[in-house]
Amino acid sequence: MVAVILNADSFSMGNTLRAIIAFIPSDDCQKYLLGDLEEMPIDRMVDLSSRQLRRFPLHVCSFRELVKLYLSDNNLHQLPPELEQLQNLQILALDFNNFKALPLVVCTLKQLCILYLGNNKLCDLPQELSLLQNLKTLWLESNCLSHLPEVVCELSLLKTLHAGSNALHTLPAGLRCLQELRSIWLSGNLLADFPPVLLHMPFLEVIDVDRNAIRSFPSLAHLPGLKLVIYDHNPCRNAPKVAKGVRRVGRWAEETPEPRKRSELGREEETDGKEPPLPPDKQPQPC
């Protein structure tokens, strides 16, 4: 038990020390934060997550063959132009930082397939993002987006879009151009209506609109590719109709019966649960 407490205290002290050293721009202090990172790793991956970094270590840009770069959970708010040298980069994680705008240098990394931008302070995305035509997964959750930027509709190979926990009211009609999009995650937004554009995207497999303000759902039975729809925590009056084999997660899903039609409930109330009266020609005649 004592060892566990000591380890926990050491971990806490280590984080505090990193946070203090992060303010000191000397090379020695930066080496302490980065650890033993003098040559490019054999696996062509650099993980600098949770290092309390306030500026990007420039010597990482010399690793020209780098494929994966993780900078999550730091204090970064900008990136140097030298990052453009990493033209083989396929995965870039910038989530849990302090970016108020996406650094344009990111848009020069044309081999990117996965881009993590969640948990920042982004209010928009630059038009230059359209240069990332190999992008297949984009994480935008937990930012300050009041609208989904139109430039997202130009990412023709996008397969997965995470845009939950923002302040989205609608989705752009141009989203239907993304014929490769298979899953869209929109939980925790401000959608008052089910986004109409999603009704015209037959290749979607997963739709997540959990924790919004949707009161009524249209039928989704015409979407042939749909496999899962998540609609829980909405003030809805009905469950979305889906084709056979599609899983629903939410009120009145497979686990519980859907509410009956108002006309059926009305008939039941009129008879108080008793058998309805027989028509005159079927009633027993007196002897």
Can you identify the CATH class of the largest domain?
Answer: Alpha Beta
Shape: elongated
Give the strand order of the largest sheet, numbering strands 1, 2, ... along the chain. Answer: 1-2-3-4-5-6-7-8-9-10
Based on the coordinates given, report the CATH architecture of the largest domain. Alpha-Beta Horseshoe
Q: Which range best describes the helical content: under 10%, 10-25%, 25-40%, 40-55%, 55-70% or over 70%?
A: 10-25%
Mean pLDDT: 84
Q: Low-confidence spans: pLDDT under 50, at least 5 residues?
A: 1-6, 10-24, 255-287
Number of strands: 10
Q: Gap between N and C termini, in Å?
A: 92 Å
Reported for the largest beta sheet, the result is: 10 strands, parallel
Number of domains: 2
Model description:
Residues 251-268 have a biased composition (Basic and acidic residues). Pfam families: LRR_1. Keywords: Leucine-rich repeat, Repeat. The protein has 287 residues and is largely without helices or strands. The chain has 2 domains: 13-144, Ribonuclease Inhibitor (Leucine-rich repeat, LRR (right-handed beta-alpha superhelix), Alpha-Beta Horseshoe), CATH 3.80.10; 168-261, Leucine-rich repeat, LRR (right-handed beta-alpha superhelix) (Alpha-Beta Horseshoe), CATH 3.80.10.10. It is 13% helix and 10% strand. The chain has 3 helices and 10 strands, in the order H-H-E-E-E-E-E-E-E-E-E-E-H. A 10-stranded parallel β-sheet has the order 1-2-3-4-5-6-7-8-9-10, with no helix packed on it. The longest helix has 20 residues, at 2-21. The chain is elongated, with a radius of gyration of 27 Å. The model is unreliable at 1-6, 10-24 and 255-287 (pLDDT under 50).
